[in-house]
Amino acid sequence: MSNFRPNLFPLMMLSFPQFTAVSQFPSFSFSLSTLSPIILPTSPPPRSTHNYLFLVLDLLELLESPDPLPQWSLLGKKQKQPKRTSTDIEEKGKGAAVYPSGEYLCQQEEYHDIMEHHFMMGMLARPHIRSCPEMVRDGFGLLALRVQGWAMSWGENKPMYRLSDDDKRMIIASLDGFCIQDDWDSIYSSLPPGGRAEIGIVLMETMMNKFIHDKFAASTFWFVDAKIDATDQEGDDNFCKRLDYVYERFKETLPKDAAWWKSTLVSVCMLSATEWGYNKAPPTPLLHTTLERRKVLLKAYGDELLASQPFQLLFRGSLSEEEQAIREEETRKVLEEAAHQFTSLQGELFGNLVVERLPELLTFDRHSNKMDPHILLVGFRPHHGTRVLIVTRPHYSYHDIVATNGWQSRPPLQIITARVLTAPKGPKARALWAAAGDDRPIHVAQGHANTAENEEVSQEENVEEGSDGEDKPRKLRRTYLRGAEDE
């Protein structure tokens, strides 16, 4: 027997493929890493019963079982396991825990209803399917282009000598959270040459992005009418703020559940049916009422922006009536695009929006994926660790994303990076920036903006962190079609 024992298990597996595991005692345990469960034949083996008994005994010796043969059946067919009483299951230490299978759960009414609701909300009933990160990024990239083009078209592109000290203080104060709250002259002197030459456009772009943030990003439920009943005509303007407060507290406690609740509410209220595949759910009754309020609010937001004194101080003057009408129309188009992108994001992706502005982006981090240097820094790259003066566009990301095909988390989605203007680092850089004067830089076409920025980043890699080294500023000639080129 001792010579036969090492080859016992392979021999049994090869000689008796009809073996099955039989146990009359579920509480009997042994190491799975040592051997599989005891193997018995389902039909008479091609050897004598006497030899087979020795095989079984040898197996039991290998397992070092305290209870040998009496606990195991030598019958040729699988035995039914006796039913376990509730006392056996509930009593601690009596057997392994029993978990129901997925098939069993789906047959239960409560579980079936929960999964059906989850599936319907995730795939069919929602009037949208836009969980593609690329579409989200493209949408916000389009919005950034619109804001930048709008600022370049209607912002003051001349030196701001006409502004009084009170006007300058008003503009800086209106940009709190996006611009450092220093005096105008201090900020102006610390900007790169391009930022000084285009200060009006820079502040106009920043002010528009702040307006969009305050109206659509900081207020998730800005569109809710807050009516008590059908006869209520005015509603409650503060209701959306109260609902936002509930959402924020909900998010602190259960972020994923808050994301599901928020996105479901936004989608039902704001998003119409699409033609994507089988997703042709009809518009909800809430959609019709909120669309009317949305139109009213967007018109009010446009009027508020155009009448805002800080905006008026930065608008390009001497416009004809026709130009003023065009400016008003384009302003409303930008706000319409912003409203569309934010409601689409908040309703079509189950997640929570995270915004990072100047308080979260105090210094420039060239290794971070949260910020990029503004295009007006071309030729004067920012150093790692330099102070951020202005965040012309905040960093938007999406967290606690819930997949529609299961309750699994996804990594945060980086929607769009922040654009920043920084101060020079060190006396050498300050002298170099000051020596460049206020030469007006080129307006790099947006299609080539990333190329120019990547060039600056690649040059940055060759400079040690914290050094004051600066390349000699390049002379750039203006071109709107081909981007920045060396003269």
Give the number of DSSP strands.
10
- Structural class comes to mainly alpha
Approximately how much beta-strand content do the residues carry? Answer: 5-15%
User: Averaged pLDDT, please?
Assistant: 73
Distance between the termini: 93 Å
Question: Which overall shape is indicated by the principal axes computed on the Cα atoms?
Answer: globular
Biggest sheet features: 3 strands, antiparallel
Uncertain runs: 1-50, 64-78, 124-129, 275-279, 441-487
What is the helical fraction, as a range of percent? 40-55%
Q: How many separate domains?
A: 2
Compressed to H and E, one letter per element, the order equals HEEHHHHHHHHHHHHHHEEEEEEEEHH
Total helix count?
Answer: 17
* Rg over C-alpha atoms, rounded to the nearest angstrom: 35 Å
Question: Short summary of the structure?
Answer:
With 487 residues, this protein is mainly alpha-helical. 46% of the residues lie in helices and 8% in strands. Helix 6 crosses helix 10.
Summarize the structure in words:
By secondary structure, the protein is mainly α. It has 2 domains: 5-85, no CATH class; 133-460, no CATH class. The protein is built from 17 helices and 10 strands. It has helices at residues 8-15, 49-63, 86-90, 102-106, 109-124, 133-154, 165-174, 184-190, 193-197, 199-217, 239-253, 255-270, 285-307, 309-314, 321-348, 426-435, 449-460; strands at residues 19-21, 39-41, 352-356, 371-373, 388-393, 395-399, 401-402, 409-410, 413-416, 418-422. It has a 3-stranded antiparallel sheet with strand order 3-6-9. A 3-stranded mixed sheet has the order 4-10-5. A two-stranded antiparallel sheet has the order 1-2. α12 packs across α15 (321-348). The chain is globular and about 80 Å long. It starts with 7 loop residues before the first helix and ends in a 27-residue tail after the last helix. Residues 1-50, 64-78, 124-129, 275-279 and 441-487 have low confidence and may be disordered. Residues 453-468 have a biased composition (Acidic residues). Residues 443-487 are annotated as: Disordered. This is Contig An06c0090, genomic contig. It comes from Aspergillus niger (strain ATCC MYA-4892 / CBS 513.88 / FGSC A1513).
